[in-house]
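Work Package 3 (structural annotation) set out to generate three-dimensional models for the target panel prioritized at the project kickoff. During this period the team completed the workflow that converts sequence records into discrete structure tokens, so that structures can be stored uniformly alongside our sequence database. As a representative example, we reproduce one entry of 152 residues exactly as it appears in the project archive.
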Amino acid sequence: MRNIANHPSPIESSRILIIDDSPVELFRMEALLRRHHFEALCCNDPSKTLQILLTEHIDIVLCDWQMPKITGLALCQTISQSPAMGAPYFIMLTGRKDRADMIAAMDAGADDFICKPAASEELRARIQAGLRRLDKERSMMMRQQPLLLCGE
């Protein structure tokens, strides 16, 4: 479960981490997200991603599949299996278009899958869908907190 203490609603204040080994793609994605008024953090070294997720509040991860050292698929599996990472909404970005690849990404823990190059409006819509889901999750947890306190 996400740790929601001291964090605003994802819809009100979202933080998106972009992970890609290509500086050009990082720049393009960051510009695209900023155009839609999202706060974007960039990481070109997938091995640093886990440290970022342990120290920063991240709502959504946009991650390239094919990277050196750690693939996006392996990173997704690690994040989805670690409660300490905060359970961000994970969107896999890839040039792969095969249905089997999409299934592998979803089985690894990805919440969504977008083929590169990501169209601006499609990416915006998918991010907003992820933020709505996170916001609903937060609302449900907040409603359950008083119930948990009464049951103690």
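The radius of gyration is 16 Å.
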